[in-house]
Design a protein that fits this description.
- The protein has 237 residues and is of the alpha+beta class.
- It has 2 domains: 143 residues, Winged helix-like DNA-binding domain superfamily/Winged helix DNA-binding domain (Arc Repressor Mutant, subunit A), CATH 1.10.10.10; 88 residues, Roll (SH3 type barrels), CATH 2.30.30.90.
- It is 43% helix and 16% strand.
- Strands 3-8-4-5-6-7 form a 6-stranded antiparallel beta sheet. Strands 1-2 form a two-stranded antiparallel ribbon.
- Helix 2 crosses helix 3 and helix 4 crosses helix 5.
- The protein is globular.
- The mean pLDDT is 92.
- Homodimer.
- This is Metal-dependent transcriptional regulator.
- One of its GO terms (molecular function) is protein dimerization activity.
- It comes from Mobiluncus porci.
Length: 237
């Protein structure tokens, strides 16, 4: 697999995930997510536009074409199936599966993907609660996941915090060094009942404290999530 193809798939995956999380895809956000320079991102987006994968609207929003939607959906599906294979069959830890699947998504053939579906009993979500898109000759439009709300929306409705159930953990949260380890150690996985508290006392840093559902007292098992990640962490209440 060429580096050019890897880069294209990486960008498609990032755009898909932003759309799924209800975040407007912009070049500036790709810079933030992937750590690439502004000029590099602009050049890559321009090339992908020439390849017919996307278009730029007047407000700089990135819009995937039908070809781009199909390609992005395929990358996401292979990535999340790989995560399921790694955790459910091979036994790799929940903490390590995401990084490993980032390598597998670029080399998995369509044949292997088709064989994985029955092997994994046609899973509907990855280990982090994110939906696995189905196979279709005409991929569905990418829309924000309807179930649940982001932490941003949760705290707008519940400024003091409260109880909730973790639904899904988006890719930007998965990519933060050590954060999955903390969530795993505290047994705060998708489906877990938790207590949430918003902390804005420090003007330079605002964050959420996540605690096990059976207590509302911050302790050893509490985990903090920076406000910049709120839009990628989803709960229901």
């Amino acid at each position: 697999m060429s580096e050019l193809v890897d880069t294209t798939e990486m960008y498609l995956k990032s755009i898909y995930e932003m759309m799924e999380d209800g975040v407007t895809p912009l070049r500036a956000r790709i810079v933030e997510r992937l750590g690439h320079s502004g000029p590099t991102v602009s050049q890559t987006i321009a090339r992908m536009g020439r390849d017919g994968l996307l278009e730029l609207e007047d407000d700089r929003k990135i819009v995937l074409t039908k070809k781009g939607v199909a390609a992005a959906t395929e990358v996401i599906r292979k990535h999340r199936l790989a995560e399921r294979l790694l955790t459910d069959v091979i036994g790799l830890s929940w903490v390590e599966a995401h990084d490993e699947a980032c390598r597998w998504e670029h080399v998995m053939s369509d044949k292997v993907e088709n064989l994985l579906q029955p092997l994994l009993k046609k899973p509907t979500s990855d280990p982090y609660g994110n939906p696995i898109p189905g196979q279709s000759r005409t991929p569905k439009a990418i829309k924000p996941v309807e179930e649940g709300v982001s932490l941003s929306a949760f705290f707008r409705k519940n400024p003091q915090g409260g109880e909730a159930v973790i639904l899904r953990i988006g890719e930007p949260v998965q990519a933060v060094p050590g954060l999955l380890d903390e969530l795993s150690a505290a047994k705060m996985l998708p489906g877990s009942k938790v207590n949430l508290r918003y902390d804005s006392a420090d003007k330079d840093r605002k964050f959420a404290t996540i605690m096990p559902g059976e207590t509302d007292i911050e302790g050893e098992n509490s985990v903090t999530v920076d406000e910049s990640l709120f839009k990628h962490f989803f709960v229901k209440f």
